[in-house]
């Protein structure tokens, strides 16, 4: 038997159909098109490791170059917008526009004025023991003095990035105000790297801004680095450590061991007296390094000075 539906029944059918279609609709997630250049956390971890190694290497190289103790410590690494990076910089400051040869693009390096003037003082012969409180723009002469130091820092940065790819970081130009280098759009994402540097009594910051899009394009390089853990990395660390230890000073002394003298004879010695020792002429002299016996040999004359000729090396336990 056929029956016509009432208007209320028809409305109820359409209402249930609409609710069912709404329930089956996939959830809508917001997408920010201005964040296309964000890089994954796995790459961020690798970049963090690279710059920790950079801090260790550059601390040693700057200390040797300046003949003053330099300590560098990575304190922050995060993805932020370029506008946020500029907001964190002092004014005036010391800012370098850094090229990334052979790749296109550039990076920004900022150094606090306190560090700049402390470096300049040491380069001009100062001891760096007094903290500098100068807050002004660097002169052209001071900028030229800093270029060689920046070259050392960027060379060390390029060395650690060789683990990923060969990049030559080079200063293209210098600026005094953060707003003078508009190389990125304000909303572009950058990897902001903050490094605390202590030189003598002065502590300041070196800040890097690397474009996130540039790092993201090297994704395949990072993946290759994660897959392969080469043994030569340990060898490279050992070679670098050997170079650093090559400049370490050691205390060396030549000693004639095994002889005794009476206290009466020692007390009665006068200027011009000759003290006869019981050692035979052929007995070898011991050479000690930091108090540890290292060589056996003979004492002789080398020009106008006394010298020690090594006969053979002592066996170490």
Describe this structure in a few short sentences.
It is built from nine helices and ten strands. With 317 residues, the protein is α+β, with helices and mostly antiparallel strands. The protein folds into two domains: 34-245, Chemotaxis protein chec, CATH 3.40.1550; 252-270 and 277-313, SpoA-like (Surface presentation of antigens (SPOA), Roll), CATH 2.30.330.
* Helicity range: 25-40%
Q: What is the highest CATH level, the class of the largest domain?
A: Alpha Beta
Q: Estimate the global geometry from the Cα principal axes.
A: elongated
CATH topology of the largest domain: Chemotaxis protein chec
- Helices and strands, in N-to-C order? HHEHEEHHEEEHHHEHEEE
Radius of gyration: 34 Å
Tell me, rounded to a whole number, the average pLDDT: 80
Largest sheet: 6 strands, antiparallel
